Amino acid sequence: MPGLTIGDTIPNLEVETTHGKFKLHDFAGDGWTIIFSHPGDFTPVCTTELGKMAAYTGEFRRRGLKLLGLSCDDLRSHADWIKDIEACSGGCKVDFPIIGDPKREIIKQLNMVDPDEKDPTGNQVPSRALHIVGPDKKIKLSFLYPASTGRNMDEVVRVVESLQKAAKHKVATPVNWKPGDPVVISPGVSNEQAKEMFPQGYETVDLPSKKEYLRFTNV
Ligand code: BEZ
Q1: Which of 20, 56, 129, 161 is the most exposed place for a label (fewest CB within 10 A)?
Q2: Closest Cα to atom 7, ligand 1: which residue?
Q3: pLDDT tens by residue, 166-186
């Protein structure tokens, strides 16, 4: 993905949202933030996605995350559309702000423009982009999906758990990892360090190379 990507600090843009005007760094504070875009209000997949975001608000809050939506529609449109989202979300409230970006300035700076999709008047629209921003205001993970493919909120929660574990311990999460599964100890950690860092113990897989790099533990 060209432009803003993993490791970059999000720009401190001033944004107008359904919850008022603020700067991105003030909103993010020193916690975790998910900034996500959708192609347009009053479209089917987007309505289901934001409905599920609303339903998962508790999941995100429990993990210390704030949500911030974004599209190129204006704030009036967002306010009207939120009623539809809430009607389709089993009554869950959309209590996170949504940025209005009719001038398409924010989506460009956040690297969220869909190269293929246009609105009915030929203007650019955002892809289904999603940046997970850490407490240092740096992007830790990005999704970039086309308009045709809705995101999976269970996958968003899963990667948040992975990122937060990796930020806290010197570990990484292996293929198909789910919260509660064993994790692997990061390759930069020596066996001597691992014994100190993981007093609960760890298991080293015996490999043909005899290199002891595949070490599982629980954190
Ligand atoms: C949708 O949300 O359903 C959608 C939006 C833009 C293009 C295609 C689908």
Answers
A1: 20
A2: 147
A3: 999 999 999 999 999 999 999
Atom of ligand 1 nearest to the CA of 46: 2
Does residue 201 surpass a pLDDT of 90?
Answer: yes
Ligand 1 atom closest to 49 (CA): 2
The ligand 1 atom nearest the CA atom of 125: 6
**Ligand 1 contact, 51 CB (< 6 A):** no
pTM over 0.70, yes/no: yes
Average pLDDT score over residue span 53-70: 97
Only one residue has tokens 């956040």, namely 110
Active site residue 88: no
Out of 41-45, 65-69, 107-111, 181-185, least confident range: 107-111
Q: Does the C-beta of 150 come closer than 6 Å to ligand 1?
A: no
- Tokens 């298991």 found at: 203
